[in-house]
Write a structure and sequence with these properties.
Layout (H helix, E strand, L loop, with lengths): L5 H6 L2 H7 L7 E5 L2 E5 L4 H11 L6 E5 L5 H14 L2 E4 L3 E2 L1 H6 L6 E3 L5 E2 L4 H9 L7 H21 L19 E3 L2 H6 L5 E3 L11 E3 L4 H7 L8
Parallel strand pairs: 2-3, 3-4, 4-6, 5-7, 6-9, 8-10
Antiparallel strand pairs: 1-2
Helix pairs in contact: 3-4, 4-7, 6-7
Length: 230
């Protein structure tokens, strides 16, 4: 399993996006009918612009294509989606922080194809790596990881989502090196409900995304304890 520093983990999503697009693209956020269309990296500026547009009562959907981005910004966007009970549509890719926070916050989720949503760890996973000595981070980095892990835990609690969905497959026996995706039925058992695949028979298009089938009887034995406090 590849070990990532906390802030590198937030931006590594660009690798998967480059596997789908020949050139990096500038982030764009625009209104289109009853939807806000978000294409690009989630950061403070892009999330703020999207949240502003989402406040319009005529908006019912967020259509997002994103490799992820900053944790705080993605959680802010997720909270706005949840507050308005919006649907989220993912034509091609919602990875990393987009998958961790924005997608679970939606009322209904429509995915263009298998593998459109994929995970590779969250801030609880970072703390697990710190606590098990699998990486070295500075004191301020660990403090910020704890702060972010506390924010994400509060979001998951409000959504009824098991945050282990974001990183269980990084552990043996799965030991996925890059990103992994799940079937809608497995997402639902983690609390991510109302997921529909537009084309369920299509193959996973991204070579960095691995489809994982959850061994549910063994999952709880796999789950480690992660401390949010020092």
């Amino acid at each position: 399993m590849r070990l990532l520093r906390p802030f590198a983990a937030i931006s590594i999503c660009a690798l998967a996006v480059c596997a789908l697009h020949a050139q990096p693209r500038a982030t764009s956020i625009a209104r289109a009918g009853d939807a806000v269309v978000f294409d690009g990296r989630i950061d403070a500026a892009s999330a703020a612009r999207a949240i502003e547009l989402l406040q319009d009562g005529a908006v019912t959907r967020l259509v997002i294509t994103s490799g992820g981005g900053q944790v705080d910004a993605a959680i802010d966007l997720a909270l706005a989606v949840h507050a308005r009970q919006l649907d989220v549509e993912v034509p091609t890719a919602c990875l990393s922080s987009c998958a961790n926070y924005v997608l679970p916050a939606a009322r209904r989720k429509l995915l263009g194809r298998p593998g459109a949503v994929a995970w590779h760890g969250n801030m609880a996973h970072v703390l697990y790596l710190v606590q098990t000595g699998q990486g070295t981070w500075s004191g301020p980095e660990v403090e910020d990881a704890r702060r972010l892990a506390t924010r994400e835990a509060a979001l998951y609690a409000s959504l009824g989502v098991d945050g282990f969905v974001c990183w269980f497959a990084k552990l043996p026996p799965y030991a996925v090196d890059e990103f992994y995706t799940l079937a809608p039925a497995d997402m639902a058992r983690f609390g991510i409900h109302d997921v529909t695949l537009r084309d369920p028979t299509a193959a996973v298009a991204n070579p960095l995304v691995q489809a994982v089938q959850v061994d549910w009887p063994a999952l709880e034995a796999l789950r480690p304890t992660v401390r949010l406090e020092p």
